[in-house]
Structures are given as C-alpha cells and as structure tokens.
C-alpha cells in the first residue's frame, strides 16, 4: 500500500516536467508541424484521388504542394541555383572538343 501513496506526486512532477520540456521545445515542435500539415494535405489529396474523388483530391493536393513550396523556398532557391550552375558547367564542357 505504501507504493501507491506517492503516485499522485510523481504524476504531478511528470506533468510539470513535460510542460516545461514542451515550452523549451516549442519552436522545434512548431517548425515540425509547419511541415507536417502540408504533407498531410498532399497525402489526403492523393488518397482522395485514388478513391475516385478527383476534383477535391487534386484541389487538396494542389494546396498542400503550394504550401510545401512556400515553406521550403529557403531550400529550393539555393538548390535550384546549384543545379543551374552544374548544368551550365556541363554544357560548357560538352561544347569543347576534348584533347587528351
């Protein structure tokens, strides 16, 4: 019986610790959910298209894709720039005759 007596206090300590941890990790969790929601929209749209609801499925998927592009613009821009640089260099190298 003595073991059950301190459980209430332990639960309160765990709850306070979880609240403090969530407060400290708030920006990280917020950033994660910013990406999870558009991905869920894309998946729900894909599911709707597969179930035969093409119009609403493509509309939901379109909104999810646009939202993902908006959220990942900081990554897409530099990657596009790097890809264009590599492509341009490969075009320049391909136009010259190679001599060994």
TrEMBL record:
Keyword presence, Transmembrane: yes
Residue intervals of the LiaF transmembrane domain: 9-96
Chain ranges passing through the membrane: 7-25, 31-48, 55-73, 79-95
Coiled coil (residue ranges): none
Source domain of life: Bacteria
Residues annotated as signal peptide: none
The UniProt record lists the keyword Thylakoid: no
Keyword annotations: Membrane, Transmembrane, Transmembrane helix
Name the UniProt record assigns to this protein: LiaF transmembrane domain-containing protein
């Amino acid at each position: 019986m003595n073991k059950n007596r301190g459980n209430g206090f332990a639960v309160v300590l765990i709850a306070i610790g979880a609240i403090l941890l969530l407060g400290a990790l708030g920006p990280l969790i917020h950033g994660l959910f910013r990406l999870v929601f558009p991905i869920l929209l894309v998946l729900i749209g894909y599911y709707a298209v597969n179930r035969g609801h093409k119009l609403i499925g493509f509309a939901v998927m379109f909104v999810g894709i646009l939202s993902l592009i908006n959220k990942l613009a900081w990554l897409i821009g530099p990657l596009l720039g790097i890809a264009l640089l590599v492509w341009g260099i490969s075009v320049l190298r391909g136009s010259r005759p190679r001599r060994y």
